[in-house]
Amino acid sequence: MRIDIFILLLIVAIVLYRWYQKAPKTKSGDAALPSTEMVLDPNCATYIPETEAIKATIAGTDYCFCSEKCAENYRKKKSAV
């Protein structure tokens, strides 16, 4: 009976240890999931990752767009105003 309890506790400890080792780390210097800031396309109001955005400067202001088409449409809207 005592050996059964000991084996059960040992198995639980091993499972918890393996789970802890697989958990992502969040302290600085530890491996963590990369964070991606989302930016708003001013033309179509779509959120996109900043790393994938098409960047353009229009009338001295920097904007991020989801595509070249949205950037061009926004340029046309701004020039019409």
Can you walk me through this structure?
42% of the residues lie in helices and 20% in strands. It is α+β, with helices and mostly antiparallel strands and 81 residues long. It has one domain (2-80). It has a two-stranded antiparallel ribbon. Strand 1 (38-40) and strand 2 form a beta hairpin.
Spell out the key features of this protein.
single chain, alpha+beta, two-stranded antiparallel sheet, two-stranded antiparallel ribbon, rod-shaped
Compose a concise summary of this entry:
This protein has 81 residues and is an alpha+beta fold. It has two helices and four strands; from the N terminus they run H-E-E-E-E-H.
Number of domains as seen in the coordinates: 1
Instruction: Give helix % range.
Output: 40-55%
The protein's oligomeric status is single chain
Instruction: Give the SSE string.
Output: HEEEEH
Low-confidence stretches: none
Strand order of the largest sheet: 1-2
Shape: rod-shaped
Largest sheet, if any? 2 strands, antiparallel
**Class from secondary-structure proportions:** alpha+beta
> How far apart are the termini?
84 Å
Q: Give the DSSP E fraction (strand runs of 2 or more residues).
A: 15-25%
